[in-house]
Every structure is written in C-alpha cells, then in structure tokens.
Amino acid sequence: MPELPEVETVARGLERRALGRRIAKVEVSHASVIVGSAEEFANTVSGRVISALRRKGKALGLELRSEDGASTRFLLVRLGMTGQFVVRASAAPLENHTHVRLVLDDGRDEIRYRDVRRFGRLRCCTAEELDAVFATLGPDAPEIREEEFSAALRGRRGAIKSWLINQRVLAGLGNIYADEALYAARIHPLTQAGRLSSQAARKLLRSIKRVLARALNFGGTSFRDYLGADGEPGEFLEKLNVYQRTGERCRRCQAKIRRIVIAGRSSHFCPRCQPRPRRPALMHSPRVPTPHLVRD
Ligand SMILES: [Zn+2]
Predict the structure, then answer these.
(1) Last residue of one domain, picked from the residues 85, 106, 135
(2) 161: CB partners within 8 A, 6+ apart
(3) What is the pLDDT of residue 185?
(4) Residue in 55, 58, 114, 258 annotated catalytic
C-alpha cells in the first residue's frame, strides 16, 4: 500500500512530466473509482492545466486551472491499496485495470489511473473541499515538530504501532514505515504510546523522518503494484529491515524477525532489539476480538 514516500515519488514524477500541461480529454472506464458523477468529473477536469501539486500524508492534490486562469479546481488522488497514477505514451498498450485516462496536450501522452483492487479514489473538488480533507489529517510526518509529537503521545494507552498509523494524529505512515521506524528506534510495537520516555519519543521521531527520507531517495517500496509516475517501481524493498521479513535474521543482532497482529494489522519486529515492555498495550481493539501471535 502506497505510503508517504511512494505518494511523494508520484508527486515529484508528475511535477517533472505533467506540470504545466493541459488535460485535453478525460476517459473514465470504471466509474466506481470516481467520487461523485463520472460525467461531471470528466467535464470539469478536461480543458484544465495542471498548475501545481499538493500533498499531505498519502493524499495528493493536483491543482487544475482553467485556461483563462479564472477558476481553480483540485483533483484529489488517493491511491488506496493498489492504485497507480502513471504518465504513459498514449500509444503504449493499455494494461488491464486501467480505469481513468487523462489525455495530455496533443494526445501523445496520458496519465493513467490503474487500480487492481479499486480501493483508491479520484475526486474533483474545490480548494475549500481539499482543505477540508487535508484538515482531517494530522501533521505531515516529515514536518511535525518534536514538541507537537510528544504532546500528541501524552496519555495515549494504545500500542505505539497503532498510534503511528492513525492518519488523524500523524499523516503519511502506514504499516511498512511504522514497522521500520520502530525497529530503527528499538521500540517494541506494543509499547503504550504515552509511556515512551521523552528520549525515546525523540529517537522515534528522528527514526521516522530518516526512514521516510531514505525510502524517498529510493523511489519508495514496491511489493507488487506500486509504481512512480514514470512507471518505475521503487527500490526500497531490499533495504527493509523488518517489514515482511518474518523468520529472517535481524541485520543487527541475527535474532529471527517476528510478526504479531495488533488491532488486525501485522507488525514485524526484532524480539531482541525491540524488547517487549513490562506493561504492553492490549493487542486487540474492541473491533478485532481475536488477536493471535504468529511464531516462526
Ligand atoms: Zn535485532
């Protein structure tokens, strides 16, 4: 699932390849990925120029100006689990699961929205509506300040892992980078968020920022579906230390990486580098009643 480094990679790719270009034509072949009427979406988006890009957490907003500059709309892109937003030559063969095509300029290139599982969404909205969506998200992870981060942790009894992937408190982290940041900071995923010492909280925030910046340098992580706007997969996969490395050796201490399920989401960690706290958070949330420990 694309997280902040992957969405930022898409934004940067679009900046290189699509910024300043006009969306000449819109073709929607699967209306369920569009929020609202697909016809209205196509009518509003076509004829506009991509004039800027905005991102917060995993949400991406393309600013679309009318050609006379009088009206601005935004195309809000949420990639969901398997969404791809890629600039391709229009002559390139159309991959299956391509649901929307934004044909650029004279028709030689187009942006294709492809999404196998169709959890992603495209929405055309006003600046106010985009701001309202962004306002539901916590601070963007690379931007959050130390005091803000520590204040948000205070009093939280849930597992730090669940806290980190809650977009309302911190925007941009999903399962991959939350696991990687906790490993880097040597914090067990079941540690109660509010019980982190101020030193541990500082270390965690530094680890989050470092992991995200590094992943961005490698163009993000591709398991199967994620691609940057150039159509290239990310190369961070082989750099991962714990995520999806269950049973493999810790690169620091050689212990076997473990996987546990916390509130329905898997967490990967090194049992030696990230010792279990004396008073861990509950592993389950009320909605997910049957947690289980998976041993290797
Ligand atoms: Zn280790």
Answers:
(1) 135
(2) 178, 179, 182, 189, 190, 262, 265, 267
(3) 98
(4) 58
